[in-house]
From TrEMBL:
It comes from Ancylostoma caninum (Dog hookworm). Pfam families: HMA. SUPFAM superfamilies: HMA, heavy metal-associated domain. One of its GO terms (molecular function) is copper ion binding. InterPro entries: Heavy-metal-associated_CS (IPR017969), HMA_Cu_ion-bd (IPR006122), HMA_dom (IPR006121), HMA_dom_sf (IPR036163). The keyword Ion transport applies. The keyword Ribosomal protein does not apply. Keywords: Copper, Copper transport, Ion transport, Metal-binding, Transport. GO terms for biological process: copper ion transport. PROSITE patterns: HMA_1, HMA_2. This is Heavy metal-associated domain protein. Residues 45-111, 129-195 form the HMA domain.
Length: 201
């Protein structure tokens, strides 16, 4: 007859055998998430945004912390001295114009200065948008030339044709860089009364 000690030893050996044959689940792999994160940062675009209205470094920190917390934003560095910010973002989620609008919504005056596409990102947008804008306050062709020359130098603007007789202008621009409102504001900031009539594209 088996003693109690021998019976206990057999039970213990059986438990060890079962444990040795049981495969522990593999730890979760983070490689896919890391690859996704790296891919999203490789597919990056950078926008330089002019920011007016900052008075101290608290404003700088507020903008940086708020913008960095947004999904699809890779980096945000703001300079109080230069009154501008450099923002890196995923172009599948953001455009330079939307980045500027996000900062503008915080109570600052933000406009896109320029936008650069990362080496591994999508090609620059070839989209074209047409905005017809009513322009009041022009008195001569010098006003026409001033608007055309000034606005056409803005990043993302392809062409500007202003009519003194019709008191309006036709603006062709890249909607990934500028919005209708920003084009209107660009003319309005020159001292004219500008209002969007229609846009398409």
């Amino acid at each position: 007859m088996m003693s109690q000690e021998e019976f206990g030893n057999q039970i213990f050996e059986a438990i060890l055998e079962v444990e040795s044959e049981t495969e522990l689940p593999a730890p979760p792999s983070h490689s896919s998430s890391l690859r996704s994160d790296v891919a999203s940062k490789d597919n990056s675009q950078t926008a330089v945004v002019s920011i007016k209205g900052m008075t101290c470094h608290a404003c700088v920190n507020n903008i940086q912390d708020t913008v960095r917390a947004r999904p699809g934003i890779h980096s945000c560095t703001v300079s109080l001295e230069k009154a501008e910010g450099v923002v890196g973002f995923n172009p599948s989620l953001w455009t330079a114009a939307k980045v500027a609008e996000a900062i503008d919504d915080m109570g600052f005056e933000a406009t896109v200065k320029n936008a650069e596409v990362g080496k591994d990102s999508l090609q620059p947008s070839t989209a074209r948008r047409k905005a017809v804008i009513s322009i009041k306050g022009m008195v001569c062709h010098a006003c026409v030339n001033n608007i055309q020359d000034t606005v056409s130098q803005r990043p993302g603007v392809h062409s500007v044709v202003v009519s003194l007789e019709k008191e309006e202008g036709v603006f062709i621009f890249d909607p990934s860089v500028l919005s209708d409102d920003q084009v209107v504001d660009a003319v309005d900031d020159m001292g004219f009364e500008a209002k969007l009539i229609k846009s398409e594209g």
